[in-house]
Amino acid sequence: MNYFAHALLASRFRDDPGFVLGAMLPDWLRWIGARPDAAPDTALAAGMQFHHRSDGAFHAAPTFVALTREAAEQLLDVGVGRGPARGVAHVGVELLLDGALYRRSHPAAVRRYAAALSAASSASRSVGWSRPEGGVRMRRVARHLGADDPVARYDDPDRVAQAVERTLRARPRLRIAPDEMPRVSRWARSWQPRIERLAEILVDETEAGLGASLRGADAGSQSQPGADA
User: Fold this and answer.
1) Is residue 12 part of a domain?
2) Which of 31, 78, 94, 204 has the highest local Cβ count within 10 Å?
3) For residue 221, is it within any domain?
4) Residue 32: phi, psi to the nearest 5?
């Protein structure tokens, strides 16, 4: 899942800007270049845990699994290398989904996303970062997403292809070769309507899987020795 999908899903479970922000934060860490060492405020920490559970549920969702498998096969068929095809199939579906969800979402969901970005100013100061500049960089990322939101531009398949290329650039086995980019752009353009149609199904399957995961975690915590003490 990407930023907006994480925010949208988190807000369905808990309408708290700090929690929604935490649900996006783990995906920002590569930009921030630091990790949160000390426990942040409760809402932010809970949101970060929710992020990882959400990713697990999303990556196991039947529709996502089927889409990424089919996308990789199609990309291979048009001459994209095996590694890049796998990377594009995974990241490309996620970014196309963010664009579809952003376009389809109720204004209230977009406002909750914006409120979470605004919460970064104060929340960043509650985190003990592994590097002193971590808080400053977190606020910078939030301002960038708020002022020049790339999610809103994921309705352009060419920009999706460019974003996928940037994401995979540091991964030698997944890196897209220059001559493969036109094929990746054509793939993104052809798949955009399909992801649009399946966007809510993807979110619903993730929410269902996440609900099962959370119920299992609750059951496990209650079965621990001393839980009823």
Assistant:
1) yes
2) 94
3) no
4) -70, -35
Closest CA to 101 of 18, 20, 7, 19: 7
- What is the token pair recorded at 173? 């086995």
Average pLDDT, the chain: 88
At 150 the pLDDT is: 61
Residue 106 has pLDDT above 80, yes or no: no
> Which residue range(s) make up the domain with 53?
3-207
Phi, then psi, of 227 in degrees rounded to 5: -65, -30
Q: Tokens representing 6?
A: 């994480």
pLDDT at 218: 45
DSSP states of 31-58: HHT--EEE---HHHHHHHHHHHHHHHHH
**108 occurs within a structural domain:** yes
Residues 6+ apart with CB under 8 A from 34: 129, 130, 131, 133, 134, 137
Quote the number of domains for the chain. 1
> How would DSSP label each residue in the chain?
--HHHHHHHHHHH---HHHHHHHHGGGGHHHHT--EEE---HHHHHHHHHHHHHHHHHHH-HHHHHHHHHHHHHHHHTT--HHHHHHHHHHHHHHHHHHHHHHHS-HHHHHHHHHHHHTHHHHGGGSEESSTTHHHHHHHHHHHHHHS-GGGGTTSHHHHHHHHHHHHTT-TTTPPPGGGHHHHHHHHHHHHHHHHHHHHHHHHHHHHHHHHHHHHHHHHHHTSTTTT-
In a domain, residue 67? The reply is: yes
- Mean of pLDDT values over 133-140: 93
